[in-house]
Amino acid sequence: MGLGLPALRQPLVPFGAAASMVHPASGYLISQILRKSDPVAKSILEGLDSGGAEAAVASGNATLWPRAQRRVWELYGFGLEALVDMNAIAIARFFDSFFQLPLEAWSGFLAGTLGPSELGVVMTRLFRTLPASVRWHLVRSSLSDGAAPLARSFLQSGLT
Ligand SMILES: Cc1cc2nc3c(=O)[nH]c(=O)nc-3n(C[C@H](O)[C@H](O)[C@H](O)COP(=O)(O)OP(=O)(O)OC[C@H]3O[C@@H](n4cnc5c(N)ncnc54)[C@H](O)[C@@H]3O)c2cc1C
Description:
Elements: H1 30-64, H2 67-84, H3 88-98, H4 103-111, H5 116-129, H6 132-142, H7 148-156
Flavin-adenine dinucleotide (FAD) binds near residues 16, 17 and 30.
């Protein structure tokens, strides 16, 4: 968990835990693998048919990491950094609020099926319902160096 996103251009299609596919919030991988393996394999085959090895790699990577998916992973990355820094009391308060969200919001968050805008809306909604002490912790985290992707993701997901 917590690995950076794979480089956009490289001579292979990185796949699996070492390729940042582990869900940054849940630590699970299997659902990602099941969701992605078929479309990625098809893209690689189409690329091979149309333009050879280079096209196959580009096509596989484009299917594996579309821009929206990269944004989503960056947003999750921010949440992960903020959470690992919290003490036990703050984490308990955080999850009390998290599971007060509507079912489709928290289950979509944990399943990794939300797009960047939807994820941003869920995170913003959660932020509003958190106790002040936890909110303050998140604000401090967002001002740290590691949170640059958050600002970029929010700006590019159209939430501003
Ligand atoms: C305790 C635990 C519980 C988990 N529970 C769940 C769960 O319930 N649901 C879920 O979805 N996920 C779960 N996960 C996460 C998931 O199991 C892992 O993310 C997944 O097994 C990783 O699979 P992988 O094939 O990508 O990587 P790995 O299983 O790490 O396989 C990589 C392989 O590559 C080999 N290798 C590494 N470097 C080299 C090299 N240079 N040359 C040759 N071979 C190399 C390694 O020896 C290894 O065999 C859990 C993880 C843990 C630790």
